[in-house]
Amino acid sequence: ALAFNQLLTFLLFLYFYRDYKPKVYVSWDLFKEQMSSGSLIFLGMFSISLIINLNLILIGYYYSLSEVGVFSFGLISLVYVRRYSTPIGTYFYREIMMLKDSANMNNDYFKRLLKLPFAYNFFFDAILLSLFSVMFFTIINLFLKEYSNSIPIIYNSIFGLIIYNSSAFLFHYLDATNQLLLRTVMIIIGTVLSLALTTFFLIFKYPLYFLTYSINVGFVFITLVAYLISLRQIFKTFTICLIMVSKVTMIAIFNTLLVFYFSGNNFILYEQDSISIHNILNAFGDVMLKTLTLLLSNYFLFSISFIKEKFMKGFNKNIAKIVMNSLSKLK
Q1: First-to-last CA distance in the chain?
Q2: Within 10 Å of residue 142's Cβ, how many Cβ atoms?
Q3: Are residues 190 and 248 in contact, defined by beta-carbon separation less than 8 angstroms?
Q4: What is the pLDDT at residue 16?
Q5: How buried is 140 (Cβ within 10 angstroms: 0-12 exposed, 13-18 middle, 19+ buried)?
Q6: Dist. CA 51–CA 190, nearest whole Å
Q7: What is the pLDDT of residue 158?
Q8: Mean pLDDT, the chain, integer
Q9: Which residues, including other chains, have CB under 8 Å from residue 171's CB and lie 6 or more apart?
């Protein structure tokens, strides 16, 4: 199926670009510039994969393949949630770019980006990570009992991932201000710290879920340094940096605790490892109630945390706009 998909994509590309005649242009100076900056951008894009994959290789020396599979199932399931929230961040990034004088990429541009766009993007990131965690718990309980040991890995991983995902616009700033080397150093140090802590846990035979703490350390280190450097340069003060970090940390802790609670408690009881229609309906109802709880609690938490940015007013306005546009298309 994957081969067919790639073949179809290739054939469509050939068809739609059949009249395109590429021109060859070679510049050694441009090649060196692209390679030097491109490699740093590539490393930044795959910083999550770098930390996780190196840790998985290290874990593989101490644990069996089945245990590594359980660990990677719990962690990687959450890591790829970010692909669903990335378009949201791109949308807000584009909206700010379209504003007057945004092409200058000055501090006013980034100040606008780190207000409501930051809050919206962070809201959807935190919500999606929490919702997918709850869904994974239900799927494991119903169909994948052999992966039940992944549940602690999931709720222990969510804190670091929420923290890390909040830094998307900060990395835009480091990229736009040509601080790629600094960003790369942050990633390398964070990865080394993570691997060192993982080695410690492995040597002293801590439980498997403890290894998520070492991965969280890497994510949190990279994110905190990004906040300290970026916000200090943009706002010229550490006060705003401390306020932002406090808000992000509070929201991450809240969602982690809520997900942890949902991992062992249900609104509607259902039997584990049972796929009867009645049991699946009960599980679905439980997920819906947990989803509603996560949405409402985060809605009010973000409204309070970003009251100065008028999160509630802006969020309600955007939701109303989406609903009206959807209704108008149905007519």
Answers
A1: 38
A2: 18
A3: no
A4: 62
A5: buried
A6: 8
A7: 92
A8: 80
A9: 44, 183, 226
Residue 327 has a pLDDT of 74
The amino acid present at 191, given as its one-letter code, is: T
Over residues 172-184, mean pLDDT:
80
Which tops the pLDDT comparison, 202 or 93?
A: 202
User: DSSP string covering 151-200, please?
Assistant: HHHHHHHHHHHHHHHTTHHHHHHHHHTT-HHHHHHHHHHHHHHHHHHHHH
Angle at 94 between CA 91 and CA 100, to 5 degrees: 145
Q: Rounded to two decimals, what is the model's pTM?
A: 0.81
Q: Identify the three-state secondary structure at position 1.
A: coil
Structure tokens at 65: 């393949």
| 201, 214 Cβ separation under 8 angstroms | yes
Give the pair of three-digit tokens for residue 211: 């290894």
Q: How far apart are CA 32 and CA 43, in angstroms?
A: 17
Contact indicator for 195, 215 with CB cutoff of 8 Å: no
Among all chains, which residue has been given the structure tokens 């490393």?
Answer: 43
CA atoms of 171 and 174, how far apart (whole Å):
5
Q: Kindly list the distances between the CA atom of residue 82 and the CA atoms of 162, 269, 285, 328, in Å, as whole numbers in the listed order.
A: 10, 30, 25, 30
Structure tokens belonging to residue 7: 């073949």
**pLDDT tens digit sequence for 209-228:** 888 899 899 999 999 999 99
DSSP code of 267?
S
Q: Is 262 left (phi over 0), alpha (psi -120 to 50) or beta?
A: alpha
pLDDT above 90: percentage of residues in the chain = 30
- As a whole number of angstroms, the distance between CA 226 and CA 164 comes to 10
- Give the list of residues 6+ apart from residue 17 with CB closer than 8 angstroms, or none: none
Tokens of 225: 């340094």
Mean of the pLDDT values across residues 47-76?
76
Range among 34-38, 163-167, 274-278, 287-291 rated most confident: 287-291
Contacts of 179 (CB under 8 A, 6+ apart): 229
Cβ atoms of residues 214 and 207 within 8 Å = no
